[in-house]
Amino acid sequence: MALWRGSIVGYCYATFYRPRPAYRYTLEESIYVESGMGGRGIGSALLSQLIAKCEQGPWRQMLAIIGDGHNNAGSLAIHKKFGFSVAGQLRSVGYKMGDWRDTLIMQRRLGDGDLTIRSRFGREPAAASPAGRAQKRRDGQSPSRRFGQSLASD
C-alpha cells in the first residue's frame, strides 16, 4: 500500500494464477494507483517491492492482466519497465462505457523462471503445492495478504 499525505493512493498484490496444480508456480499481480497520482514513482515503488518479495518464494512466472490494455498507457509502461512483455490479447472480453474492451496479458519471469525444473528449495515447496494451499499458513495469512503487505510497514 502506498500512502500520500495520509491517504492511500495505491496498492498491489499477487495471487495464484489458477487453482490447478499445473499453475502452482505462476502468480497474477494487480497494481492500482489513484487517478491523477501517476508519474510520482508510486507504481514503481509498489511493483518493485512486490516482485522482490515474490522472487523470494518458489514462483517462476508473474502475469499482469491489463483491462482495456491498449488504452492503458500507464499500466503498459510500468510493466514494460519491470521486464513484462505482452504475451497475448483477449478481444472484447470487457464491456465498459458503451463499448467492448480488450484485455492484454503481460508476463515476466521470476528468478530463474522456466530455466530450471526443480524449485530452488530442491523439493516441491509446500506453499506452492496443492496440499500446501489447502493447509492454513503458519502465520494465518493468505498468499495475497502476504504479498500485498503495506510498504509503510517494510
Automatic annotation (TrEMBL):
N-acetyltransferase domain span: 1-111
- PANTHER family attached here? ACYLTRANSFERASE FABY-RELATED (PTHR43072:SF8), N-ACETYLTRANSFERASE (PTHR43072)
Protein's UniProt name = N-acyltransferase YncA
> What keywords is this UniProt entry annotated with?
Acyltransferase, Transferase
Q: What is its EC number?
A: 2.3.1.-
What is a single Pfam family found in this protein's UniProt entry?
Acetyltransf_1
Q: Which PROSITE patterns does this chain map to?
A: GNAT (PS51186)
Q: InterPro entries this protein is in?
A: Acyl_CoA_acyltransferase, GNAT_dom
GO function terms (MF aspect): acyltransferase activity, transferring groups other than amino-acyl groups
Renumbered to this chain, region (Disordered) spans: 121-154
